[in-house]
Specification:
By secondary structure, the protein is mainly beta. It has one domain (25-195): Porin, CATH 2.40.160.20. It is 10% helix and 63% strand. It is built from one helix and eleven strands. The chain has one helix spanning 2-21; strands spanning 33-47, 55-72, 75-88, 92-108, 114-121, 124-131, 136-155, 158-163, 167-172, 177-181, 189-195. Strands 1, 2, 3, 4, 5, 6, 7, 8, 9, 10 and 11 form an eleven-stranded antiparallel beta sheet that branches. Strand 2 and strand 3 form a beta hairpin.
Length: 196
């Protein structure tokens, strides 16, 4: 029984690594349509401000479907339209719409199955801001983000990607500004893209 299990595991591993080395021509050529999206979930502990002392939990969810077009080999432009939510225990709850125009460039790594991707995006978030015990208002956030990542192409028209927040600058309608560099490396965005 152990020998059969060992042979089966060995053959599955050989098949897996053989599929990784197959030369697929991933669809990042001029004229290809990019269709997919990204999902981000993060949970962090932050220090509470105001009347509350101790730690509070902050949760963030982004779901942004995207569509783009390759205007040149390995260079695509497009936009995303989706939903965002940010909740911090007892203090803040924001949810609303995200519009995110983007440009992305793909660079081949050792074969066409694995590519580096760099994305420059300009997300605009229109949020309903509910501050407990204070007042409700609307909030607009304007951002510029540079996100490096890796895309794996298990099939010719399918890309599975991992994007990291490399650098970002944001400004909101309350005139708050924030710059971050690599602070979300432990909460990557996971995406699936179809190349049609």
């Amino acid at each position: 029984m152990r020998i059969k299990c060992y042979i089966m595991i060995k053959s599955l591993l050989i098949t897996f690594f053989a599929l990784l080395t197959i030369q697929l021509s991933a669809q990042t050529e001029k004229g290809t349509i990019l269709l997919g999206g990204q999902l981000l979930y993060s949970k962090t502990k932050e220090l509470a401000g105001g009347y509350y002392q101790g730690n509070v939990v902050a949760r963030r969810i982004n779901l942004v479907p995207q569509v783009g077009f390759f205007i040149k080999d390995n260079l695509a432009f497009g936009t995303g339209l989706g939903y965002t939510s940010y909740k911090k225990d007892r203090e803040v709850e924001r949810q609303g719409l995200v519009v995110a125009p983007f440009g992305r460039y793909y660079a081949r790594l050792w074969n066409d199955n694995l590519k580096f991707v760099g994305q420059l995006a300009f997300p605009i978030q229109i949020l309903k801001n509910e501050r407990y015990y204070y007042y409700n208002d609307n909030l607009q956030i304007y951002e510029v983000t540079a996100s490096p990542g890796i895309v794996f192409f298990p099939a010719k028209k399918l890309g599975i990607e991992l994007l990291f927040n490399g650098a970002s600058f944001s400004k909101n309608s309350e005139h708050d500004e924030e710059f971050s560099f690599g602070d979300d490396l432990l909460s990557p965005m996971i995406g699936i893209q179809f190349h049609l």
